[in-house]
Each structure stands twice: as structure tokens, then as C-alpha cells.
Amino acid sequence: MINKNEFFDINKLPKEFGILVFPISIVRTSNGTGQDPKQCMEYIKDFSPSKITDPKVGLNMIYGDYLYFHSKDEAHVLKKKFMDAVLKHKNQFQKLFSKDSERFQIQQALSYEVWNQLYLSYRGDFGSDLMKLRKIYATDTNFQKYVNEDAGFVNRELTEEQLNFFLEEHLMLYLISKKQVSLPNEYIQGRENWVLWCYPGVPLKGQVYIYQLNPFNLDVPENKYQNHSYDLESKKLIDYLNIDLESYNYSY
């Protein structure tokens, strides 16, 4: 029996077609911050070939550039800053990936996209659904408590901009898990049965709460990872439905 807040590594990924999603935080793309190109390569090597049974796995890297427009800084300054960061990271990572062609023989399995592409790839109206989530937050004291604790954990003041950042990021990743967002991948070509998003570090409480609340009543049994993420640092598959938020203290 698995206890609450207890998690383990993946032995093998499913044999069906699937996509690993790496949401890339722009502030973590420089050296030594958890998602620089070399570190991302090391994360991928943990999956391939040891966890891949059949060559049916794609990788989508999604840069969260547009999320950072939840800021008081001028738009043209943010655009230049994050455009440069995205291009630098993508180009450096692509070179590393191409050099390791013996390990990663299917180069078309790698796809890159930026955050604002996801708005158009979502099957619903993202703006409207984000407003619905914001209304839930406004009246749900547990949700408010967890997000406030998250702000303290990441050492951020919970300003209006930071709250909007949290809610938008959490909602989009929840929708990706529920297969409501089309993920372009030249190799997989829409055949994915499962989708698993992977990030270095423990999940935030507000994020976990959304999965447990399931505010849009989404259920996609074909995706065995619909309520999960993978912690690239601890190498553990995190089942959000097995987290007790009252005893969870950003560790497992």
C-alpha cells in the first residue's frame, strides 16, 4: 500500500504513443538554474533508453515566455529579453540533441513551441476558462491559502501579477494533462494516448489543488498520467490525487 505523499520513479513508459512535455521556465534557462540546455539533456537521458520500451515517445519543449508578461515591466523590454532567452536555449539544446544522434535517432520526435501558441491549441476558450478559475479562487478559501503558501515557498510577493501567473500556469498544465491542448509533434502526429509533463522540483500546492478539485470535470482515462507530473530532480512520478495538502510541506 502506498502512503500519502509517497512516490516512486517510473520503471517503463507505456508502449503506446505518448508525449513528454517539458515546460521551460525562462528564469531557469541559464547555467545552473535547473533547465539550462545541458541539464535538460541529462533529464532526457534518464528516460532514453532505460524507460522507453518502444520508439513511440515524443518530446515537446514549451517555453513559458508569454507568462512573464504578467509584469509591470514594459512589453517591448520583456519581449526582447525573453525572445533572446528562448532562442539561445533552443539553439544550444538542438545542437546537443543532434550531436547525440545514436541515442536519439528520431530527431523529428523533438518539438519546440512558445506559451502563446497554447492558447490557439486549446480546444476551448482559454481566456473564458481562466476567468472561471479566477472566480473559483475568489471564493475558495482553501485555494487562496495554498496559493499564498506557494508564494512564500518560491519567495515571491503575492501581487496581482504573481497571482495571475500562478493561475494561468496551473490551468494550462492541468489542461495539457487532460489532453485538451493539441501538441504538435512531427513524429507522433496526434497519435498520443498519454501525455506527461515533467519539471525539476516539487509541485506547488495550488497546482495540486486544481487537479484534486478538477474544476472543469475533465476525465481522460486513456491518459494514465492525467493527474500526474514527473519531478525531474527527484526522479519521481507525482500522483496529485495521492497528496495530502495539509501534511504536504513541499517535500516527499
If you had to describe this structure to a student in words, what would you say it looks like?
With 252 residues, the protein is an alpha/beta fold. It has one domain: Rossmann fold. The protein is built from seven helices and six strands, in the order βαβαβααααβαββ. It has a six-stranded mixed beta sheet with strand order 3-2-1-4-5-6. Helix 7 (205-213) links the parallel strand 4 and strand 5 (228-231). Helix 1 packs across helix 2 (75-99), helix 5 runs antiparallel to helix 7 and helix 6 packs across helix 7 (205-213). The longest helix has 25 residues, at 75-99. The radius of gyration is 18 Å and the shape is globular. The two termini are 16 Å apart. 32% of the residues are buried. The mean pLDDT is 91.
